[in-house]
Design a protein that fits this description.
The protein has 19 helices and no strands. The protein has 471 residues and is an all-alpha fold. It has two domains: 387 residues, MFS general substrate transporter like domains (Growth Hormone, Chain: A, Up-down Bundle); 56 residues.
């Protein structure tokens, strides 16, 4: 495989992998606006509705490390086409669901396919574009698309739900898959860095079980309380399998995760920030879309349209992030981006029954979206700095896994926070109690973003030479 063949159609390749990423992140947020319609049509209970989101993020986050390693060993082209085909088929099945169980199962299968596609989209960029200005530009475009995909998902979900049906929220993936296949077929090829090897099956199983049990424990805790037996049992399983995983990786000839990669400060800092970034984005979208409909009385399409400023702000933040990082460094851009996100979430936490779009929703939308867009690009650039080519899938998997697990854990925790705050509200007005729960969830989300800003300010390397030093 020659380098000329690998980079001949870089424009098509970049478009294909960006479509993969936008489809994967869109599928988290696109269902948010449709949740009330889904609950009514399929007769979901209030406690089980969050599983429409969690079933996807649970499998997605738990299998991302395995998905990234699978792409390295099986070949990027083969893994990409398998992931796309699987995603398209199960999306059609999700739209045909006739019961809560069928929809949740299909969403879990979407998460499985997404766990292959998400790390591949960044891996292919890392092994195709040489490190430096060309790769930074490609990563910036990828991160901008990923950051704006969530906001676009809310808008698209509202339009499809109100004008067609919530089922089209699932079926919309089919034409995206077909377009991505058409772009990827002539442009995506296995590179010289893809190498044959043996999949670390014990490590893969332990990592998957540990991540899945951790997220499941948080979900159970949100539904039944932190002292619930199922929650404590899941946390115990997560801790034990995590310890076994570390021991397994130290002895494995070809480990799923080379533990030495965490000696690289950019990798572990970016991973930690990704946890809080995922928590902020996923929880913010989830509760904002519910608050618009349940509190302000918006229709699905109105709620989706209300997120247009968020889409614009995310793109603007992503566009300026690269330039600002080149001039001032990644640390101030990343920390400032997360601080802006925190401010936006805290302002969201003041929503009330008398709130208006212009008075309450517009300003925090713009502030938070610019922050998310800037932080997403800066953090992705940080995490991929100095990564070895043969570990591109590993680093990509780690970046995606930490972000998605952060989102899943936060959503599970905050669903419990909102529910307990609503139930503990002393007033007789049920709407006021619901608003109190949403406000508390937004406030905690703001604390997550603030924690990420502090981590970035303290631990991100000061200069590019230190950041690029491989482990």
């Amino acid at each position: 495989m020659t380098e000329q063949r690998t980079t001949r159609h870089t424009g098509l390749l970049l478009a294909a992998v960006c479509l993969c990423q936008v489809m994967v992140v869109l599928d988290v947020s696109v269902v948010n606006v449709a949740l009330p319609s889904i609950a009514k049509d399929l007769d979901f209970s209030a406690g089980s509705l969050s599983w429409v989101v969690n079933a996807y993020t649970l499998l997605f986050g738990g299998l991302l490390l395995l998905g990234g390693r699978f792409g390295d060993l099986a070949g990027h082209r083969r893994a990409l086409f398998l992931g796309l085909a699987g995603f398209g088929v199960v999306s059609v099945l999700a739209g045909l669901a006739q019961s809560p169980g069928q929809l949740i199962a299909a969403r879990a299968a979407q998460g499985l396919a997404g766990a292959v596609l998400a790390p591949l989209s960044l891996t292919i960029i890392m092994v195709t574009f040489p490190e430096g200005r060309e790769r930074s530009r490609a990563v910036g475009i990828w991160a901008m698309v990923a950051a704006s995909g969530s906001a676009l998902g809310v808008l698209l979900g509202g339009v499809l739900t109100e004008w067609l049906s919530w089922r089209w929220v699932m079926w919309v993936n089919a034409p995206i898959v077909l377009l991505t296949l058409a772009l990827a077929w002539p442009s995506v090829h296995d590179t010289r860095t893809a190498r044959p090897g043996r999949l670390d099956v014990p490590g893969a199983l332990l990592a998957t079980v540990s991540l899945t049990a951790l997220v499941n424990g948080a979900i159970r805790a949100g539904d039944y309380g932190w002292g619930a037996p199922w929650a404590l049992g899941s946390f115990a399983v997560a801790a034990v399998t995590a310890a076994l995983f570390v021991g397994c990786e130290r002895r494995a000839a070809e480990p799923l995760v080379r533990l030495g990669v965490f000696r690289s400060r950019p990798v572990w800092v970016a991973g930690l920030v990704s946890v809080f970034l995922g928590a902020t984005a996923v929880s913010g979208f989830y509760f904002a879309s519910l608050a618009l409909q349940d509190v302000l009385g918006y229709s699905p399409v109105e709620a989706g349209a209300a997120f247009l400023p968020f889409c614009v702000g995310t793109v603007l933040g992503a566009m300026v992030s690269g330039r600002l990082s080149a001039r001032f460094g990644l640390r101030p851009v990343l920390s400032a981006g997360m601080f802006l996100s925190a401010v936006g979430m805290f302002v969201f936490g003041r929503i009330g029954v008398d709130s208006t779009f212009l008075g309450t929703f517009l300003l925090p939308s713009v502030v938070a979206s610019v922050g998310v867009g800037a932080a997403m690009v800066a953090n992705t650039s940080l995490g991929t700095t100095g990564a070895l080519h043969h570990e591109a899938g590993l680093v990509s998997g780690l970046m995606n896994a930490t972000r998605q697990c952060g989102g899943s854990l936060a959503l599970a925790v905050l669903a419990g926070v909102a529910l307990s705050s609503t139930r503990g509200f002393g007033g007789p007005d049920p709407l006021a109690a619901l608003i109190h729960g949403y406000d508390r969830a937004f406030q905690v989300t703001g604390l997550f973003a603030l924690a990420a800003a502090v981590v970035a300010l303290v631990f991100v390397p000061r200069d590019r030479q230190e950041a690029a030093r491989p482990a």
